[in-house]
Design a protein that fits this description.
With 338 residues, the protein is an alpha+beta fold. The chain contains ten helices and 15 strands. The strands form four sheets. It has a seven-stranded antiparallel beta sheet with strand order 1-9-10-11-13-12-14. A four-stranded antiparallel beta sheet has the order 2-3-4-7, covered by helices on one side. A hairpin with a 7-residue loop joins strand 3 and strand 4. Helix 5 packs antiparallel against helix 10. The termini are far apart.
Length: 338
């Protein structure tokens, strides 16, 4: 039987660097798997120093900044790291308390009934979500670097002869996914689990959601069954799994967060960001990254397509966007010219 997990505590992905020196072999192996993340005690970055090399990407609208830096330079040539800084959403209750008090203000301008201020909130309202990728490889740097995009149309034949061989030639580790499925990491963040090894999955909050408000609700269902890479692998054989994810995922979210299924956008990405089948659950009003028509495929429609034609996703031409510097784009474009 699938069971709902107990409510997760408020957690952040952090490593307690202060205690790292005292860790034994067992503790070090646990940290490699991600066990022990989320301590509320003060911690340090897993490196020393951060010398900015480049702003990889920034968005004033989304209030997010991606930085490439060199770290640990005192120990030699240094290593690459990426730090992502993102302003967190407002908490209505806390802001209401702030406005009832006497916040620190600086007047910017005043005109008739309109005035603009700079407000300096207390510590509990001024946190910045900080994501660290360390050590960062060239692939990580290219992933976060802003690039122009180009739409491509991939036939079923293109996938088998070009895309799949290209993906298999890449070293794309998904060990972190297996750590979640094997309860070696983030076990206390699991909202719901159907443990069936073939048709089961775990439901876990996406790291882009801080779980403090429902406007940007974002969870991921990760299937237990291994070897299903993406939409292209799906056939009628996988319908029980997909139906479970849709039905049980919606039920779990309604039970935990009181958000009904018709208020959720449930979809798969193609191309996905990692090649182990997973499904996105987001609040319908939230403009989540990758929710556009060129990438998102609604799970209910995927199920219907497979019910109608079990080979639908092996045969269908799929449109998606690739970065201009992506080697796969060049391979597909050259094949289509020929």
């Amino acid at each position: 039987m699938a069971e709902a997990a107990p409510p997760p505590s408020k957690r952040k992905r952090e490593l307690d660097a202060a205690g790292a020196k005292a860790d034994g072999t067992e503790d070090k192996e646990a940290k490699k798997a991600g066990v022990g993340n989320g301590t509320s005690a003060p911690v340090c970055f897993p490196f020393s120093g951060f010398k900015v090399q480049k702003v990889l990407r920034e968005s004033a609208r989304d209030k997010i900044l991606f930085l490439h830096g060199k770290v640990n330079e005192a120990d030699g040539d240094g290593e690459d790291a990426i730090v992502i800084l993102e302003k967190t959403p407002f908490q209505v209750e806390q802001v209401a308390q702030l406005l009832m008090g006497s916040p620190e203000l600086q007047l910017q301008f005043s005109n008739d009934i309109y005035s603009t201020y700079h407000m300096f909130p207390p510590r509990q309202l001024s946190d910045v979500k900080t994501t660290v990728v360390y050590p960062a490889t060239e692939k990580h740097l290219q992933k976060y670097l802003r690039q122009d995009l180009c739409l491509v149309r991939e036939t079923g034949g293109d996938y088998r002869s070009i895309t799949l061989p290209y993906l298999e030639s890449q070293s794309l580790s998904i060990q972190w996914v297996y750590n979640i499925l094997d309860k070696k990491a983030e076990a206390d963040r699991i909202v719901f689990e159907n443990p069936d090894p073939s048709d089961g999955f775990v439901l876990i909050p996406d790291l882009k959601w801080n779980q403090q408000q429902l406007d940007d609700l974002y969870l991921i269902a990760i299937c237990h069954r291994r070897g299903i890479r993406s939409l292209r692998d799906l056939t009628a054989e996988h319908l029980p799994l997909l139906r479970n994810i849709l039905r049980e995922g919606q039920e779990a979210i309604q039970q935990r967060y009181q958000v009904q299924g018709d208020r959720l956008r449930v979809y798969l990405h193609y191309l996905p960001s990692y090649y182990h089948l997973h499904v996105h659950f987001t609040a319908l009003g939230f403009e989540a990254p990758g929710a556009g028509v060129e990438r998102a495929h609604l799970l209910a429609e995927v199920i219907e397509n497979l019910e109608t034609n079990p080979g639908h996703y092996q045969q269908r031409t799929l449109t998606f966007a690739l970065r201009m510097d992506d080697p796969l784009l060049k391979l597909l474009q050259e094949a289509q010219k020929g």
